[in-house]
Design goal:
- The protein starts with a helix and ends with a helix.
- With 158 residues, it is mainly α.
- It has a single domain (3-157), classed as Up-down Bundle (Ferritin), CATH 1.20.1260.
- The protein has helices at residues 3-31, 36-61, 68-81, 95-121, 128-157.
- The protein is elongated and about 50 Å long.
């Protein structure tokens, strides 16, 4: 497999993850609507949508085609992730907020890794300034999610 083929696989795998992550942010923001946490999650959801859009744009700039089956797989994966034993069949478990925040944080950390990997390539087709902004935003998102996660941990486990 050539470097270009590996890059296409890598970027499409991240796009699948971004799709799953965006669905998780949407669900969490909807579940927390009307709360301080919900407002923050809605803001992050919008940023994550922008980041996913940026990934698609960067893929096109790098000459990488979007593989629709991987995007669909990410969407399906997030839906399947909802089917877990949490002691509540039809309602949200009190643990749902904490577990979702942990999942969102892990996804954003992965996104930050993507931006930094693309920066390391020094590909002239990709805007270095844009990648640096995206990496910095991912770092800020991790900080926000960690604050929300710790608040949820205190509320649920404390």
């Amino acid at each position: 497999m050539s470097a270009d083929e590996r890059r296409a696989v890598y970027l499409n795998d991240h796009l699948a993850g971004a799709t799953a992550g965006l669905e998780l942010f949407r669900r969490a923001a909807r579940a927390q609507r009307g709360t301080d946490r919900g407002a923050e999650l809605a803001r992050l959801r919008d940023e994550v949508q922008e980041d996913r859009d940026a990934l698609v744009e960067l893929m096109h700039a790098a000459g990488v085609s979007v593989r629709a089956y991987k995007v669909l797989g990410g969407w399906v994966l997030e839906k399947a992730g909802r089917l877990k034993s949490n002691g509540h069949l039809l309602t949200r478990s009190p643990l749902s907020d904490l577990v979702e925040l942990e999942g969102m944080r892990l996804g954003v950390e992965g996104k930050g890794c993507l931006w930094r990997a693309l920066l390391a390539l020094d590909d002239p087709r990709l805007s270095r300034a844009r990648l640096e902004r995206l990496a910095a935003r991912a770092e800020a998102q991790v900080g926000t999610l960690e604050e929300l996660r710790l608040g949820a941990a205190r509320a649920v486990l404390g």
